[in-house]
Amino acid sequence: MKKIIIPIILLTFLTGCSNKQDIFETSAKTYYENHMKMVNNLDSVTITLEDLQNASDEDGYDLTKLKKCEKNSKITFFIDKNTKEISDKKIELNC
């Protein structure tokens, strides 16, 4: 019985964390597209959870699952200067 319960708990924990990261990343990508993509010569962009919370009324982000996360949680997108597309990311989500 213990052998079954431990993997279930781990799976639930990991799924919850990755789901929060997905929500954070998706919202941050939308924020970048709406507010920052038009800026030229960016190598990287850092967006905090607080930035998203401040813009949530205007942009309609659903951040309810991130309530217990720290406002200084951040995602850094690395930008291709030619296309202005996101080429890589680094997420620091503290929940």
Key features?
95 residues, globular, alpha+beta, three-stranded antiparallel beta sheet, single chain, 3 strands
In short:
With 95 residues, the chain is an alpha+beta fold. The chain contains 2 helices and 3 strands; from the N terminus they run αβαββ.
Task: Please characterize this protein's 3D structure.
The protein has a three-stranded antiparallel sheet. It is α+β, with helices and mostly antiparallel strands and about 100 residues long. It is built from two helices and three strands, in the order H-E-H-E-E. Strand 2 (about 75-80) and strand 3 form a beta hairpin. The protein has helices at about 1-35, 50-60, and strands at about 45-50, 75-80, 85-90. The protein has one domain. The protein starts with a helix and ends with a strand. It is about 45% helix and about 20% strand.
The Rg value, from CA coordinates, equals 16 Å
Total discrete domains: 1
Low-confidence parts, pLDDT < 50 over ≥5 residues?
Answer: 1-16
Question: How many helices?
Answer: 2
Q: Identify the strand order in the major beta sheet.
A: 1-2-3
Secondary-structure element string: HEHEE
Helix content: 40-55%
Which whole number gives the mean pLDDT?
84
Oligomer: single chain
Number of strands: 3
